[in-house]
From TrEMBL:
The lineage of its organism: Bacteria, Bacillati, Actinomycetota, Actinomycetes, Propionibacteriales. CDD domains: SK. It comes from Nocardioides ginsengisoli. This is Shikimate kinase. Binds 1 Mg(2+) ion per subunit. Its EC number is 2.7.1.71. InterPro entries: P-loop_NTPase (IPR027417), Shikimate/glucono_kinase (IPR031322), Shikimate_kinase/TSH1 (IPR000623), Shikimate_kinase_CS (IPR023000). The gene is aroK. Pathway: Metabolic intermediate biosynthesis; chorismate biosynthesis; chorismate from D-erythrose 4-phosphate and phosphoenolpyruvate: step 5/7. The keyword Transferase applies. Mg(2+) binds at T17. Its cofactor is Mg(2+). GO terms for molecular function: shikimate kinase activity. Its main location: cytoplasm.
Length: 166
């Protein structure tokens, strides 16, 4: 069994993938993103899994994929924003160096743009992002050992803070 150096959590637009790559590069380890692992496994985009198979099917794949990655990847892992809502994933995360990338509504909305490729944002992007932030921020905070602010900061600064903290 291998254990990741750290696991990045946070909502869409927190910068998990960009910052995760930078942290991994800085400490010389590999990087994986749960959405990417799912896409590689099923050979289609997350968006297509939502549309063709439904969110429940996506969540089941996500649960399995995250559990596998936590056991088999020894670098940096970033998790899709909703992965932490699953109770079995939450239980597994208790043993890991979990880093919450905090982002406020304005920066999150700016970073996700029109929300393309993100099925949960269909409709009014700002309202959906606000709802997800309100619902999930307490969950992210409860799981994190380290919280890093990302508003108004370049990804390289956020990554440097994480490297210093882990
Ligand atoms: C989701 C976040 C997405 C992706 C899927 C669902 C969510 O990942 O897993 O669209 O529930 O917040 P990112 O947080 O990497 O955008």
């Amino acid at each position: 069994m291998r254990a990741p150096v750290c696991v990045l959590i946070g909502t869409m637009g927190a910068g998990k993938t960009t910052v995760g790559r930078l942290v991994a590069e800085a400490i010389g380890v590999g990087f994986v993103d749960s959405d990417q692992l799912i896409e590689d496994k099923v050979g289609k985009s997350v968006q297509d899994v939502f549309v063709e198979d439904g969110e429940q099917a996506f969540r089941a794949l996500e649960r399995e994929t995250v559990a596998w990655a936590l056991d088999n990847h020894d670098g940096v892992i970033s998790l899709g924003g909703g992965a932490v809502l699953d109770p079995s994933t939450q239980a597994l995360l208790a043993a890991h160096q979990v880093v919450f990338l905090r982002v406020g509504l304005s920066d999150a909305v700016k970073r996700v743009g029109l929300g393309s490729g993100r099925p949960l944002l269909l409709g009014n992007v700002r309202a959906r992002v606000k709802q997800l932030l309100d619902e999930r921020t307490p969950v992210y905070q409860g799981l994190a050992r380290i919280t890093v602010e990302t508003d108004d900061r370049p990804p390289a600064d956020v990554a440097a803070e994480i490297v210093a903290a882990i």
